[in-house]
Amino acid sequence: MGLRQGLPGHRAQMPRAIKKKGAANWRPELREETPKKSNSMLGSHAAMHNMNNLDRIGKPGLTLQMQKISPSDATAPRTPCPTAKSGGPQSSLEYGSAAVFQARWDWPGLLRLAAHLGILAITVAVTARAPGLWYWPAAFVQGVVMVFLFCPLHETTHRTCFRSRWVNHVVGEVTGFIMLLPYRWYGAFHMAHHRFTQDPERDPELAVGKPTTWTQYAVLLSGAIYWRFAVMGLLNRALGRKVDKVSAPYLDDRTRPLVVREARIHLGLWAAIATLSILTGSGFALTYWLIPAVLGQPVLRLYLLAEHWGCPAVRDMWQNTRTMRTLAPIRFLAWNMPFHAEHHANPGVPFHQLPAYARSPLARPEVVEDGYSRFHVGRLRDLARGRAGPV
What we know:
Elements: H1 3-6, H2 16-21, E1 26-28, H3 39-49, E2 66-68, H4 71-74, H5 107-129, H6 135-147, H7 150-158, H8 165-179, H9 183-195, H10 214-222, H11 224-238, H12 255-280, H13 284-305, E3 323-325, H14 328-333, H15 340-345, H16 354-359, E4 368-370, H17 372-385
């Protein structure tokens, strides 16, 4: 995350040239005007929301980029917020410091990872012993546990999962390989999402809009779009395509060749696995990875849709992101990411501190839903009435 300048609680420094020319015409490249009330808040608040994953060595993380703004950008009107309270805080730092929740250690992440992998090992053993048609429900359960390895991948891109940088990197590389989402590329993609959350023109997660019909909803839940996006994206990047400033604006000139090399390595490894499986007649990869991953992917889609779908397209992180009140087993499997508004408002808070942060007066989520089933029932009603938008 560009740890020294990207985390809340660390004062961001303006370049000297900017100070001399007049800092009033400069601000971090945020989607909302930073309040003028507190200069000390500018650095930490901007660092939280300005997520340009490209640090000096091109790895996923946070850096603070100062960009000159035009008067029209600075005075752009806010989009009305029909489903959330107006006038909410841009950041919890308006109420105090969140630094107390940003302490990072290795052991919480290692314990959670060990537990997650332990559950996965049990489900694999059950799948291996399931007779006949019982294989399919067993593989489905295994697949659900496996696809939620997306959550440690997500955490490691923020470099808050573990205190040790190399542990974040190793876990991110392995889980990214399993999920067909290479660690370096996904880090760039995801930080652009944080930086431009719910911005239809710049949020890369909105490149494929949210469903507006039941048919689109069903296709999205099937995982077909995900697999096409993952496989074709890997192939295109391996061939050096779609990594330019137009198709992938979240990549810079230093990171693009690294992403291409990463894709080629992943593609080569998957080709080697496929070749070895064919030559040895082994169905291990198909039985215990591909089929369970396909079966479990719809559950991950159900989970991810709730994070932002239907939230207003405004710049306030407390309003454009949804927090879900859900069961402890789901929070465990999702590495506490149902506290998603809290995560977006202060991405420097590690997953293991999110529950405590969510209970504190600093957390002010404005879009909250009680349970995933209730959320999706409401969305299906909106689809039936033609009220579900593509954001």
